[in-house]
Design a protein that fits this description.
The protein is α/β, with parallel strands linked by helices. It contains 13 helices and five strands. The longest helix is centred in the middle third of the chain and has 29 residues, at 107-135. This is Response regulator. Keywords: Phosphoprotein. Pfam families: Response_reg, YcbB. Residues 2-118 form the Response regulatory domain.
Length: 300
């Protein structure tokens, strides 16, 4: 991944560059101390990602993004911000910002966000390659291609913003396992059995299945927590957001989403206590994946 850093604070630029370089996350191909001075360089270099400060003199981060988009830059943006203002955050989301890095800069947060961004970049690149391949096939053949179970699940997880989380692969494996069973009852089998089945199937016999199934459980729980936070953030900004409207009431206990929305609006620094219902999440995901997969066959 190729990064360009725009921040009027030299210390912040230096720290971000150090984190990217030492973490082997990619290359910093350029930097600028203001939005006004970065325009021509970004357009010329076309980095994959621009890390840009929200508050800068002359042109702030949002105004700079608008100018770059108007001049044809198609890469991704990550906003760097010391303040959390609901209106400004909402405007940033409208401009296509997917992630925020908070000041003071934290190494763990930066590494986590850049890894998620890289995963999304790879996913979009894969989707683009698939589309280009389909364009080379006749129209009559395009309609015959069915999405795989993995593609359907990843599409849903992407809508919730958790495609790059460590538990996303475990979730895909569980749904693939369920879809390969001849018959699955309306209610899923005990989660413990599911985790152990996936651990046994995906790991070698030398691995402690019980220990690995526990790790799968924790990874999935953390991933669902991220989904709750993502949807609550969307809902707190725009209650009519389509992803929020669709996924929040179906996949989660909506009261937990509502509590997290209140927590976000109050800008509390204390971590909210959220109850995670992994079984409901996996149950709904399995049923939706099954419906979408079967519907493809009916529409052939």
């Amino acid at each position: 991944m190729r990064y360009f850093i725009v921040d009027d604070d030299k210390a912040s630029r230096t720290m971000l560059k150090k984190i990217i370089t030492e973490g082997d996350l990619g290359f910093v191909i350029g930097e600028a101390e203001s939005g006004a001075s970065c325009i021509s360089s970004v357009i010329k270099m076309q980095p994959d990602v621009v890390l840009i400060d929200l508050l800068m003199p002359v042109l702030d981060g949002i105004e700079t993004i608008e100018q770059l988009r108007n001049q044809g830059y198609q890469g991704q943006f990550i906003m760097i911000s010391q303040i959390v203002n609901k209106e400004m955050v909402g405007e940033a989301y409208e401009k296509g910002i997917e992630f925020f890095i908070h000041k003071p800069i934290n190494r763990v947060e930066v590494q986590s966000i850049l890894k998620k961004t890289a995963e999304q970049f790879r996913l979009r690149d894969s989707i683009l390659s698939i589309r280009e391949s389909l364009e080379k096939i006749g129209p009559s053949q395009i309609g015959k291609r069915k999405q795989s179970v993995k593609e359907i699940v990843l599409s849903i997880l992407n809508d919730m913003g958790i495609i790059g989380e460590s538990g996303s692969d475990d979730i895909v494996s569980i749904i693939e396992f369920l879809m390969n069973q001849r018959e699955v009852a309306a209610q899923l089998p005990p989660l413990k059995d599911l985790y152990e089945s996936v651990a046994t199937k995906t790991k070698s016999h030398q691995v402690d299945v019980r220990k690995e199934s526990k790790a799968i459980e924790q990874r999935i729980r953390r991933t669902i927590l991220v989904a709750v936070n993502n949807l609550a953030s969307l809902g707190s900004i725009d209650y009519t957001n389509p992803e929020f409207e669709y996924y929040a009431p179906r996949y989660f206990d909506f009261q937990e989403i509502r509590n997290q929305m209140i927590h976000i609006r109050e800008s509390s620094k204390e971590e909210a206590k959220i109850k995670v219902n992994s079984k409901k999440f996996l149950q709904v995901l399995y049923l939706e994946t099954k419906d979408k997969f079967n519907l493809q066959g009916e529409n052939k």
